[in-house]
Fold this protein.
Amino acid sequence: MTIAILSGLLVGILFGFALQRGRFCMNSAIRDTILLQDTTLLKGVFVAILVAMFGFGVMALGGLIKFSPTPLFWGANLVGGIVFGVGMVLAGGCASGITYRVGEGMVGALSALIGLATAGTLTAMGFLAPIKNALQTNTKIMVGEANPTLANIFGLPTDVVAIILAIVLAIVWFVIARKNREDSEPTSGSMVTRIFKKGWTWLPAGIVIGLINMLAFYLSTLAGRSYPLAITSGWIGIVKVIFAVPDSKLGWDAFLVIGIIVGAFIAAMIASEFKIRWPGWKMVVQTLIGGLLMGFGAVTSAGCNVTHILSGLPQLGLGSLLGAISIVIGAWLAAYVIFVRRQKA
Amino acid sequence: MTETVKTTKSLDVCGKICPYPDMDTMTTLKKMNKGEILEVLLDYPLSVERIPRNLKKQGHRLISVEQLGGPNHRLLIEAHGLK
């Protein structure tokens, strides 16, 4: 049992290493499309989703894992997702982004993380819980006994549809990319330099993170948890242990998030990118507020960017699809109000 | 090589969180005349890669990226002169 839970730490270290090397932040990925007209990171996110979609499907068919899509409660997915999206723009990072940046020494990320963990816990079991409960129970939709997916609402097996959809989407993307003659990014240096010293380009970063997510799903299933990568639940678990909430103990996901910081720290040290960075009090307050919004949003929507986008979309969950769309809407709204409008003025 | 370039303005965005290094750089460049050189000091790995990637779209030209030790970098950029 202990070994199974410690596997969360191992996956976390791998994930943190890959996040730091790939500069893989989904806040940047989503926000930069409208802010800088830069789609580099977003392409990496799509790759990670497609790899996981195909991989989860194959693993489920082989009996290694069982799909566990997040619930669909449209009111909670919508409100929680939008609040989360606004929050991550203020925080300067998504849930995984602020976690790995703590390992790089960014104080702003640490204050955001404290906000996420605090508001997440208060929404899960504190004074914010009634709001979450009302939104979730009043708008919940199920397919029989199961959480709805793009496949099971039509009576189709989700794992098979996931495999087919991943292949189709990959082919469509490949054809479009070839037609547009997208340049591949130039690479230089030895293999060791490229892995440990330079930032990874979007394609390898996406593939590696997709593969780590497959490993995460398998190992967490062995540990009795049965979900791929996730962030917020791990932090809430840690808060509960710190405040000695009865029956609380560190689970697989708590070791995962601790591992992310360790992995990112190792990666940053090797690449000499670790540095304690102090952004000033104003920014620390802004990231803390952002983190608080993220914590409320993630627990209300039953998922942060990792649960919904990296792990939920590959399982074709409709709750995750709506959650993901809502996160994007919230992030774009905030990015427009905070940055784009100011830039034009 | 960098010694021969005369900088017009210097911008220090060390410590800043995402996306302020990029935004501050772009806003400053916008206010500069064509041919003027901006020096940017930064320590955020993502922006060290992202700023050079996005400069071209605004017509600015990257002169050099210099590593000053650890994550600290110095970018030299020639403004396009949108003012």
Remarks:
- Chain B has a mean pLDDT of 90.
- The longest helix of chain B spans residues 20-30.
- The longest strand of chain B covers residues 61-67.
- Strands of chain B lie at 9-12, 37-42, 61-67, 73-78.
